[in-house]
Amino acid sequence: MQLFQSNQEIETLIEKFNTCSLPAEAWTHEAHLAMGVWYLRQYTLTQAMLLVRQRIILFNSSVGGPVGFERGYHETLTWFWLKTIETFLNEYGRDKALLDTCNAFLESPRADRNRALLFYQKEEVMSLEARAMLVYPTNTSHPW
């Protein structure tokens, strides 16, 4: 997992994401998660979900990224990651430096890119329904 080196690096990432000037290749798993941490330090889960949905769709369109039924924005995974980050922030705290918070999350088991598969069957989470609208986890026995 690639860690961030400074608060400014994260702030620049968010600014470029928000203005659709981030190169597509910089939109990594770590960048997605740092964006989630940043938004959830500023907004509630519901507010962050509304903003992030809009901005990911806009960003994907601006870089010629995937948009459609098979690839691109994914409602359930966006919610899943924001919910996972929110749970982490509730435990870790929101008052620490952005750099420390992002890197602590990235170093935690919660940042594993396959984490959603602890909560969903692969076919379920990759379905068109899950891409288009929120599908709640079927495996609720695993702690967030």
Summarize, please.
The chain is mainly alpha-helical and 144 residues long. Helices cover 56% and strands 0% of the residues. The chain contains seven helices and no strands.
The proportion of strand residues reads under 5%
**Helix content range:** 55-70%
Task: Sketch the topology as an H/E string, one letter per element.
Answer: HHHHHHH
Instruction: Work out the oligomeric state of the chains in this entry.
Output: single chain
Give the radius of gyration: 15 Å
Number of strands: 0
Number of helices, counting only DSSP H or I runs of 4 residues or more? 7
> What is the CA-CA span between the terminal residues?
20 Å
- Report the uncertain regions: none
Global shape: globular
The structure class reads: mainly alpha
Please summarize the sheet with the most strands: none
What integer is the average pLDDT? 95
Count of discrete domains: 1
Can you walk through the features of this model?
With 144 residues, the protein is an all-alpha fold. Helices cover 56% and strands 0% of the residues. Helix 2 crosses helix 4 and helix 3 packs across helix 4 (75-92).
Secondary structure layout:
Layout lengths: L6 H12 L10 H14 L2 H18 L12 H18 L5 H10 L14 H4 L2 H5 L12
Name a few traits of the molecule.
mainly alpha; 144 residues
